[in-house]
Design brief:
Chain lengths: 225, 443
């Protein structure tokens, strides 16, 4: 993916830039808000990663300006301000995701990935049936089958599976699951998400040769072959 | 009388003032009344005396005939409708006068002052004057005093009632206006306390004492707003600046962990990462707590389905509890309030996690329609002395601080509860600990 990174802290910028490159993205980076705005408006990027607190012109203003000029590129905001109202402000300004510093690299990579594939996801959103290998989920009927086996899921388990299937082959972090499935922002101290996923995995993967739900060590989970 | 009335200064004022005024008026009036009465009486007596004197002179100058003529003349002209004259001869026959007969029980033998009643009940007062020749003259007057007395009494009663009623009404009207102003000020202060730091109390243009007070308050609130802004800026700078070293350390560690390393080194790095994350998490929680407690936090006014939040929280943690063989029991009634659902979820999460890590047995989560939320476990509970300190920052029951956690969770819960007009309390449910939040303002 072609990414633009705007972060005034040199150490953080170089760190993130390197990580993104290593993950296979091509990255343009700048420490100046105005340059960032200019570059974002003129060149086509797949996604923008903006620090919120920039000198001269802050991240949210950049997003607002872009949106006002009709530029729809997905935006991920990085910020040390982590309260819910800061998040809401970020999203209202037009950004697509908001990550609080400090973050794990894997979290950043997973979210950038989710951002850039969003258009495809929107198409997937129109499908009433999601299929991965022999696993089939029917949104309208709220039913799940694996092969010819019918699987009974609790409502939350169904939503969890749906989220994983909408992000097939992509790493999904615990925080993403919290926000996407439970729609709350918080940091659990216990391994709450893990327990839900392992219960789901027990229902989905049990008795089948190929496990579909994989744990990605230190990052999160991935549903795929 | 309802306590609210008894306690109100305004009520006391509205009742006591009229009472005082009426009492004072009555007190002042009594001597005036007495003086008036005395004066009238003196006048009456003086008038009777004058007449007696005049008539005696007539007798001395004109004899009985002269006296009779004088009396008749007075009767003809009827100068004073109240005057009473009666002249009797030695045998008691009426010689002159305007009275029908000698009044009963009035002696005739000597000169004296007498009083008797007329046939219409009116009081009559006068003098009996023996005249030479065993005749008796009565000079008297109908006394205005009794009627005056009655008349006055009635007037006074009405006056007292009127004074009381008018001053009571005036006091009530005036104090109700004052009370309304004070209530407005109290509401403004409450709004400011609840977080609307920019709000100011409104002043009338009168510039009276209440306005002066409101102005004082406004200045204090301006200072407060400045201070809170200062704190907020400091904590935001803290967020940015102090976190940086930790952030950088984390980044370096993460870079390291991606390189090829021996298992021992990798394990050490992973362990360090966990500690750094823990520290960062603590930092974040502290900052959050500081922001919530500093006030000036503008809470959203959105209507939150609290029942939904509670159910979601219960369902989220049920599997975790099940791993240790513990069950989560949810008893939820419909309940709504205004606020922030993420914060409320956090508050509940802290309570549940607390029950999970420090309690034992099943966990009961109950939300009642009247706004009472309870999380209860069946473990050992907490020593009684510790109950009131549980929501203190950094307080740990286990002073040795061996179990994980730093004691911020419950402080956060308490702060969130308070922001939502609720109060967090703990009690030993025997067995176990019961955490209760009473939300007093529902939507």
């Amino acid at each position: 993916m072609r990414l633009l990174l705007v972060e005034d802290d040199r150490g953080a910028r170089e760190f993130v830039e390197r990580a993104l490159r290593e993950a296979g993205h091509s990255v343009d980076a700048t420490g100046h808000g105005r340059d960032g705005l200019y570059m974002a408006s003129s060149e086509g990027y797949d996604a923008l990663i903006l620090d919120r607190m920039l000198p001269q012109i802050d991240g949210l203003t950049i997003v607002r300006t872009l949106r006002a000029s009709g530029i729809d590129t997905p935006v991920l905001i990085l910020s040390a301000l982590g309260d819910v109202d800061d998040r809401v402000a970020g999203l209202r300004a037009g950004s697509d995701d908001y990550l609080v510093k400090p973050f794990a690299l894997s979290e950043l990579l997973a979210r950038v990935d989710a951002l850039t594939r969003r258009p495809r996801e929107q198409r997937a959103g129109e499908d009433t049936r999601l299929t991965v290998a022999d696993l089939e989920l029917d949104r309208l009927k709220r039913s799940v089958r694996r092969g010819d086996r019918r699987i009974d899921l609790q409502p939350k388990e169904f939503q969890l599976l749906e989220y994983l299937m909408r992000h097939t082959d992509r790493v999904v972090t615990r925080t993403m699951l919290l926000e996407g499935v439970w729609d709350y922002h918080f940091d659990p101290k216990t391994n709450v998400i893990d327990v839900h996923v392992s219960n789901l995995r027990a229902k989905i993967d049990k008795g089948s040769e190929k496990p579909l739900i994989h744990t990605v060590r230190g990052v999160g989970y991935r549903l795929g072959i | 009388m309802p306590t609210r009335f008894r306690r109100s200064a305004f009520f006391r004022f509205a009742v006591l003032l009229p009472l005082l005024v009426s009492g004072l008026a009555a007190l002042l009036f009594v001597p005036i009344y007495r003086e008036a009465v005395q004066h009238i009486r003196a006048e009456v007596i003086a008038a009777i005396d004058r007449e007696s004197w005049d008539l005696e002179v007539e007798f001395h100058e004109g004899g009985v005939e002269g006296l009779i003529a004088a009396i008749d003349k007075r009767g003809e002209r009827e100068l004073d409708p109240r005057a009473v004259y009666l002249l009797l001869d030695a045998q008691g026959r009426i010689l002159a006068g305007n009275w029908h007969g000698w009044p009963d029980a009035v002696p005739r033998d000597k000169r004296q002052w007498v009083a008797f009643q007329a046939s219409d009940g009116e009081a009559v007062e006068g003098q009996v004057l023996p005249i030479f020749g065993a005749r008796t003259l009565l000079v008297a007057r109908r006394s205005p005093l009794v009627r005056f007395d009655e008349h006055l009494a009635v007037q006074l009663a009405w006056a007292a009632l009127a004074v009381f009623a008018v001053s009571a009404l005036a006091a009530m009207w005036f104090t109700s206006r004052l009370r309304r102003r004070l209530r407005g000020l109290a509401q403004g202060a409450e709004d400011i306390r609840r977080g609307d730091l920019g709000r100011r109390l409104s002043l009338t243009r009168r510039g009276d004492e209440i306005d002066a007070l409101a102005d004082r308050f406004n200045r204090t609130f301006a200072d407060l707003e400045r201070l809170v802004d200062g704190v907020r800026q400091v904590s935001n700078h803290l967020a940015h600046d102090l976190r940086r070293p930790l952030q950088l350390a984390r980044q370096h560690l993460e870079v390291l962990s991606h390189s090829a390393l021996e298992p021992q080194a990798r394990a050490a790095i992973d362990a360090s990462l966990i500690e750094v994350d823990d520290l960062l998490g603590t930092f974040a929680a502290l900052l959050r707590l500081a922001r919530l407690q500093a006030g000036g936090f503008e809470l959203s006014e959105e209507v939150v389905d609290l029942a939904r939040v509670v159910s979601d929280a219960g369902e989220l943690f049920a599997p975790v509890a099940a791993e240790s063989g513990r069950q989560v029991h949810l008893l939820v009634q419909a309940c709504q309030l205004r606020g922030d659902r993420h914060l409320l979820f956090q508050a509940l999460q802290n309570l549940i996690e607390n029950a999970l890590s420090h309690g034992a047995g099943d966990i009961d989560i109950e939300l009642r329609a009247n706004g009472i939320l309870e999380v209860r476990d069946y473990g050992e509970g907490v020593p009684d002395e510790a109950l009131s300190r549980l929501s203190e920052r950094f307080y740990r029951v286990d002073q040795a601080r061996t179990a994980p956690g730093i004691g911020i969770g419950l402080a956060l819960t308490a702060a969130i509860a308070e922001l939502h007009h609720g109060e967090l309390r703990f009690a030993n449910a025997k067995p176990g600990l019961r955490a209760q939040i009473r939300f007093s303002r529902l939507a």
